[in-house]
C-alpha cells in the first residue's frame, strides 16, 4: 500500500483541522494545487488568500479554480502577486489570528521558463513567522521542502532549524520524511498551541 506522499499527508492534516467557512492561506500558490484543495475545504462561505511572486503562477491558479467558480462553489478569493514574507501585512487586520491552515510548497514553479526563481531561506523564515501570527490556536502550518534542487537543501535546513527552536508552548512541530532518501521532498508541520491562560493569583 505504501505511505502517503508528503503533499498528500499535508492535505490530510489540513483537512483534519479545517472546516467550511474557515480562513485559509496558500503562501506559495504555484500551479494552484494547494489553493484548489483549500478552496474545496472551506467552500463558498470561506476565504482563501494565495500568494506568489510570479504572475504565471497566479494565472495557473486562477485557471485551476475555474470549475469551482462555474459551479458557484468558489470561496471569497484574494490572489496576490506578493512575496509570502509580507503575508501579515496583506491580510485584512481583522483576520489576523483566525486562519485555520496555511500551506507552503517551496522551491520553484514546475514547468516555468525560469527555474532560477525559487523560494529563499530568509523570506521563507519571515513568512513562517508571519504565518504563526495569522494562525488561530489549533491551526496548522504545513511546509513541503525540496532539498534536491540547487538552494533547496539550505532552505530545508533553515526551516527545520526554525521549527526545532520554537518553544513547545507556541507550537508543536513534526517531520514527515523518508529516512533512506535524504534528497527526497519532506514535510514540516506545526500546530499552534493555545495561548497560556493567566495563572491564578496566589491565595
Helix percentage: 25-40%
Order of helices and strands: HEHEHEHEHEHEE
What is the distance, rounded to the nearest whole angstrom, between the alpha carbons of the first and last residues?
Answer: 58 Å
Shape: globular
Find the count of extended strands (DSSP E, 2+ residues): 7
CATH architecture: 3-Layer(aba) Sandwich
Could you list the spans in which at least 5 consecutive residues all have pLDDT below 50? 198-203
Number of helices: 6
CATH class: Alpha Beta
Quaternary structure classification: single chain
The CATH topology assignment is Rossmann fold
Structural class: alpha/beta
For the record, what is the CATH homologous superfamily label?
Vaccinia Virus protein VP39
Structure at a glance:
The protein is of the alpha/beta class and 203 residues long. The chain has one domain (6-192): Rossmann fold (3-Layer(aba) Sandwich). It has helices at 6-16, 33-42, 55-70, 87-90, 121-134, 152-165; strands spanning 23-26, 47-52, 76-81, 99-105, 135-145, 171-176, 186-192.
Account of the 3D structure:
The protein is α/β, with parallel strands linked by helices and 203 residues long. It has a single domain, classed as 3-Layer(aba) Sandwich (Rossmann fold). Helices cover 34% and strands 23% of the residues. It has helices at residues 6-16, 33-42, 55-70, 87-90, 121-134, 152-165, and strands at 23-26, 47-52, 76-81, 99-105, 135-145, 171-176, 186-192. A seven-stranded mixed beta sheet has the order 3-2-1-4-5-7-6, with helices on both faces. Helix 2 packs parallel to helix 3. It is globular and about 45 Å long.
Amino acid at each position: 500500500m505504501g505511505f502517503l506522499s508528503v503533499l498528500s499527508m499535508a492535505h490530510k492534516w489540513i483537512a483534519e483541522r479545517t472546516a467550511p467557512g474557515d480562513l485559509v492561506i496558500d503562501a506559495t500558490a504555484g500551479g494552484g494545487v494547494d489553493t484548489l484543495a483549500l478552496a474545496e475545504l472551506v467552500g463558498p462561505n470561506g476565504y482563501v488568500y494565495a500568494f506568489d511572486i510570479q504572475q504565471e503562477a497566479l494565472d495557473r491558479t486562477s485557471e485551476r479554480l475555474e470549475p469551482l467558480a462555474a459551479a458557484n462553489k468558489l470561496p471569497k478569493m484574494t490572489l496576490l502577486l506578493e512575496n509570502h514574507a509580507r503575508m501579515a501585512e496583506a491580510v485584512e487586520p481583522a483576520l489576523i489570528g483566525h486562519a485555520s491552515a496555511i500551506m507552503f510548497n517551496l522551491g520553484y514553479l514546475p514547468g516555468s521558463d525560469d527555474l532560477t526563481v525559487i523560494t529563499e531561506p530568509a523570506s521563507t523564515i519571515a513568512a513562517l513567522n508571519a504565518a504563526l501570527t495569522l494562525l488561530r490556536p489549533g491551526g496548522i502550518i504545513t511546509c513541503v521542502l525540496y532539498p534536491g534542487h540547487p538552494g533547496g537543501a539550505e532552505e530545508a535546513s533553515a526551516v527545520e532549524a526554525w521549527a526545532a527552536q520554537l518553544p513547545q508552548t507556541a507550537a508543536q512541530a513534526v517531520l514527515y520524511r523518508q529516512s533512506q532518501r535524504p534528497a527526497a521532498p519532506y514535510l514540516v508541520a506545526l500546530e499552534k498551541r493555545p495561548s497560556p491562560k493567566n495563572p491564578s493569583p496566589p491565595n
